[in-house]
Amino acid sequence: MLARWRQQSQQWPIDFWLVGLISLLLVIGLMMVASSSIAISEKRFGDSTHYFMRQLFSVGLGFAAAYILFQIPLSFWEKHRGKLFLFALFLLVLVLIVGREINGSKRWLPLLVMNFQPSEFMKLVIVVFMAGYLNRHANAVKESFEAVIRLALPFGVMAILLLMEPDYGSTFVIAVMITGMLLIAGAPWRYFVLTVLPMASLLAILVVISPYRMARVSSFLDPWQDPFGSGYQLTQALIALGSGEWFGAGIGGSVQKLLYLPDAHTDFLFSIYGEEFGFIGVLFLVLLYLAILYRLFRIGRKALDKEYFFGGMIAYGIGIWIILQAMINMGVNLGAFPTKGLTLPLMSYGGSSVLLLLSALALVFRVDYETRRGLPPKTEQAGSETGETA
Asked: Environment class of residue 380 by beta-carbon count within 10 Å: exposed (0-12), middle (13-18) or buried (19+)?
């Protein structure tokens, strides 16, 4: 039966196993947003379904964007990746000027239908930009560190703009995404130290000189030292997870979501999920993310096997993005990492996150579609575009 399924799946236009896994994750996410936001929605808006309806709208908008992006050949993104990166930098500058400030951070551009987060858009752009760069300079990256250093200027500007918001979490995620794609492309392991270490050192310095950030780190190390002050959010999250025990309190049975745990529907939705579904539910969710990662990497490997380097690197880059952000979010909820302000992919409340992740997955499905149909363009040669070096 398994062999028959594999044979049938080879005839599909896209990977429907991945479609099913993503759909399941979205359904669980919508269910958890509805459950975790009941109390805060009622308190703020007098409507217990306010955040759920907005998340449902964002998912619908994400599907519409994904459908449109799926129709566009990947050669278009490869050709215009430089312009896309400049536009993303422009949005990062714009958010510092006219962005909406929430909890001391300017990360959102107020649009008519939602608050748009340029840092989420930058994550997608980085994947496309790096895939194109590595496609053009794959051999140089393996042999010369100069090809890696060439990325320092554009990504240095990007990092400075992100840190000015400030958005430390997105800066770290992007740095690891870049390094991961370099390593998959064949760059030596020493480049990991040369690229991530300076970024990690800078983030550490910024934490040390900022009393607010330092307080968050110290509270993460020992939240019970001040359980009603700086450690309040983490202690409530740990109480929620502990209350779930093996099988959880059942959907809707969480107590911590009743205005005890702040950000229960956003950054700490995982804790409410653990309270309602228990250890078994958490294990199932981890396996679900790992299954999605496997399918994404499988698409990337098949693309590389057919010498479609640009498409393969897109699939790998987006896989790194999703699993890394999921790991960090779960780690924050479990007290393994300090609070980063990163959502749980395709689950936590957040219009920009859902919209951009669905758009990113549309590119992966386009990679799969072109690979299965034998449509990948010939590998672009370095310097083939007039006046373009990156």
From this structure: middle
